[in-house]
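WARN no homologs supplied; continuing
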Amino acid sequence: MVTRRAQNTRKKLLEAAELLVIRDGVSRLTLEAVASEAGMSKGSLLYHFPTKDDLIRGMVVRLIERFEEDVEASRDEGPGGWVRGYARATFGWAEEPREVAVDAALLATMANNPKLLDPLRERYEVWQRRIEDDGLDPLVGTLLRLAADGVWLTALFGLAPSDGELKEGVLRALIELTQDSP
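OK structure emitted
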């Protein structure tokens, strides 16, 4: 059983790692730097995250947990409710200022060991099954997921992301697709 103190320590370490990646870049993500940023000893960090891969995996798991909380908070009732929650949460993560923890986890993973994205890949499979079983035409649900993911990725990589009214219009159009679907 993980104590509240241990949970708080892990959270503080993960937040420090995220901040380091965003502020200083992926190349500066070291166990020593994270411990220092968190105001802890390296031994304390190693207790919770014995390797850099463990730390990055923790960042990815934290990303998944936070995203799933946002989806649940954004969903509504009826057919397609979970899919609409997914779209709303994803569009929310693409807002300025963007969800920097997400950026940090993904950037650190891709730069250090793309295999560490496996927990996210596994969750995407679960989410896709959830979309296909949400009471909508699976094609419509999948289209919405792919479009929402595209909005998020354009924001993540700064690839001419849409803002303001245009982005709101895209979300409205996607939501309308789910309401017209049988």
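The longest helix spans residues 52-74.
OK
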